[in-house]
Amino acid sequence: MLYFSRFKMILIWLAVAATVILAAPNLFSASTLAQLPNWVPKRQMTLGLDLQGGSHILLRMDPNDLTKDRLETTRDQIRTLLRDAKIGYTGLAGSGRTVQVRITDPRQVDAAKTALKTLTDPVAAGLFSSGSVQEMSLDDSEPGLLKFTVTDAGIKYRTS
Length: 160
Known about the structure:
By secondary structure, the protein is an alpha+beta fold.
């Protein structure tokens, strides 16, 4: 068991008492402090944002930045998915709201669509809603060229 001399115990309790006296003004309002005698410390500690009731941050999402980030992510996903499926491709590029990729072997177009199907799968719209949102749409009207476009619903889903 620890043993402190009487002198050390007195110093510890004096330090505790001084701290309580110096911190006490924070427990009272300014009008109450004005009524106290002059020998009582009246200076309150400035509280940080977290102790003043929190900070309120306003976040603003720019749809253009979101679209750009989504296209970069989609391009990276296409690259990874096609590489994992061992499907040859060329011309992987994105502009505006569209990412396009050309499949080099026409016989592998269906395999590429299957590998990239996860990009066009609907995502759940929210925790408490039962709907879903399709973020990307696929345009395969030109043979061998797959175009993935960010949908308006996808942008709205990401910004809300």
